Every structure is written in structure tokens, then in C-alpha cells.
Amino acid sequence: PQMKSNKRIKMAKHTLTYFGMGGRAEPIRLAAVIGRFPFTNKAVAYKDFGEMVAGLPLGQLPILEIEEGGTKTVIPQSDAILRYFGKQTGLYPDDPVEAMQVDSLLDTIKDLEMPLDVTFMGPVRFLFADKEWEEEDKLAMRKRILEKAIPKYLGFVEGKLRDNGTGWLVGKNVTIADLRLYYPCQLMIGKGILDGIPAESLDAYPNIKTCMTGIEKIPQVAAWYEKYPGGKYGNFDFVPKDEE
After folding, report:
1. Chain segment 104-133, per-residue pLDDT in tens
2. Which of 15, 98, 172, 204 has the lowest tally of Cβ within 10 angstroms?
3. Residue 68 and residue 139 in one domain
4. Is 115 found in the same domain as 82?
5. Strand, helix or coil for residue 112
6. Which residues, listed in sequence order, are joined to residue 236 by a DSSP beta bridge?
7. How far apart are CA 234 and CA 52, in angstroms?
């Protein structure tokens, strides 16, 4: 996909702020990388996050800051930022039906991701409880996710990939829906970082695994991970090669 943003948007400064890891910001970064959209990656250390919470919209990351003509706009919510980058890079469809399909998949993936995140970051963070779960409660929740949520949501996504037959979720090319899937599948479930949800959980979904591999084979993505192995990030400016 080629960047199709107008000159005004292109000349604005875009700063994406998140922790120095992949996480929720990774699909956004990959959209920028694939679409050759310049941005500044600002990494926040966990030890510094508490001091900045009060000044953040919704008290959470990631955020996107857009600076243009002396004006700064600050936007929270990772999926909103991902859609914006998708529209600037040709990774969000112009066709309204295909765009709706992408939106539907973003919501589906978020429905899967939410219970995973609760077990990862704790119920207090999500206002589900006044105290954190005991270890056995967390593992019991993950057992339910493994037995119920993963088959429901990944089964749906697997079917979409199978029926589309292109290796991608919507249309003939990669979209932000595929990149959005990358976070929970490749960076969480696929790495086996959650006790009780083994990496082998993805083996039942061969089309999803093929899609994840397809993302990593995109030349811009392959070059990105060669430069930033393990998804460990500090502060840097992403300047596309064709603009250097």
C-alpha cells in the first residue's frame, strides 16, 4: 500500500506514546511502517507512568499527538489511532462494505482481547474489582477464556480468513484488521506469555497462523523487526527509506 494522505496531514508531526514494548501500539506502528508514514515513537518507562497518568486522556496509553501550525491535538484509544493511520496509508478500505467488515473484525478482536487483558493487568485496572485476584482466580478465568472465548472469537476470525481465501481478512491485501489481530495472537497467545494459555492454542487456527506469518514477511515489517528485534523500543523518529 502507498501512503495517500494529503500534504497537510503528511507535514504534521505525529508522536505515538506507549511503553517500550509492542503491545497495543504495535499494530499502529506496523501500519505506519507498511504505509511509509513518518512518526515519532516515544517510549515511557513503567516507573515513570504513574507520574504522568493524571495528565493523560483517560489516564492510559497509547496516545497520539498531532502537532500542526502551533496546535497540538491529543487522541487516546488505540483502535481510533489505528484507523487514522490506516486511512493515511491505504490500509483501511475506501469501499464502505469492506470498511464495515474491517470495523466488525476490530470489535471482534477487542472482545477476545478484553478478558485476556484483565487477567494480564488485573481487574482493579479495569474497575472490575476493588482488589486483585488470587493466582487461582486468574488461572480459572484463563481456563474459561481458553475453553470458551478463544474458540468463539478465533473460530469466527479463522472462518473469515478461510472464506476470503487471500491470506488476509478483508479483500486482497493486508488491512488494519490483520494488524489488529497480530497483538493478541502473535504477541500474547502465540508467545505463550500467559500461564494457562499455551502457545499451542493457536494450532487449531492454521489460517490465522498463516496470516501472522504473512504480516512478518511483508518487506517493511521484516526490516522493522530486523532493526527492532523483540519489539523493544526506545525513543526514535521513523523516517521511511524513500523519504530519507
Report:
1. 999 999 999 999 888 888 888 888 888 998
2. 172
3. no
4. no
5. helix
6. 41
7. 18
